[in-house]
Amino acid sequence: MTVTIQKCSSEDLVLLQDISIETFNETFKDQNSPEAMKAYLDKAFNMKLLEKELANPASEFHLIYSNEIIAGYLKVNSDDAQTEKMDNDSLEIERIYIRKLFHNQRLGKHLIHQAAQIAVERNKGKLWLGVWEKNERAIIFYEKMEFVRTGTHSFYLGDEEQIDYIMTKTLR
Q1: So what's the pLDDT on residue 159?
Q2: CA neighbours within 13 Å on the CB side: how many for 162?
Q3: pLDDT tens digit string along 139-160?
Q4: Least buried of 36, 56, 147, 172, by fewest C-beta within 10 Å?
């Protein structure tokens, strides 16, 4: 299996939107109402917002390929682009998603390493992320990747409030 990771550019916008919608749907549609899912997908993955996020120098998107087939993506934020106020030593993993077809191929691990590399390049000492308290599979994965629970925050899927665990990994 050949794994490649590529930083997104504006030319990848349609592909980014497609993979974002597909992976979010695969991950959460069975635990949430269709109305809440539609509201979130329309808001979070509309073209104008994705264009704006791609243009922000404090955010980066990376696509991961397995044998030249798109398998998932990563979005990281630093400084004011972070979704929660954190110290200046932190880099947020806002999104890390792998298509179900590619689960159990260790691709998530590649994306965590990519995020850690970006953090080091940006002189950050910590990675953090929010993970839904009911997403046990992801929580177990992050714990294996040496993230620890450090707090909680609210995440809104449409009008529905959900609780995310904030998990942090110290890099230095």
Answers
A1: 83
A2: 21
A3: 999 999 999 999 999 998 878 8
A4: 172
Residue owning tokens 């910590």: 126
Structure tokens at 8: 């997104």
Q: What b/e sequence results for 53-77 when a residue is b if at least 16 CB atoms lie within 10 Å of its CB, and e otherwise?
A: bbeeeebbbbbbbbeeebbbbbbbb
pLDDT at residue 160 in the model: 85
Question: Would residue 142 show up in a list of annotated catalytic residues for this protein?
Answer: yes
Those residues with Cβ within 8 angstroms of residue 147's Cβ, 6 or more apart along the chain or in another chain = 127, 129, 167, 168, 169
Average pLDDT of the chain to the nearest whole number: 95
Can you give the pTM of this predicted structure? 0.95
pLDDT tens-digit series, residues 20-45: 999 999 999 999 999 999 999 999 99
119: exposed, middle or buried (C-beta count within 10 Å: 0-12, 13-18, 19+)?
buried
- Residue 29 is classified by DSSP as G
- What is the chain's percent helix, strand, coil content, to nearest 5? 40, 35, 25
Active-site pick, 97, 142, 156, 165: 142
Q: Which residues pair with 156 in a beta bridge?
A: 161
Tell which phi-psi region holds residue 105, choosing left (phi > 0), alpha (psi between -120 and 50) or beta.
Answer: alpha
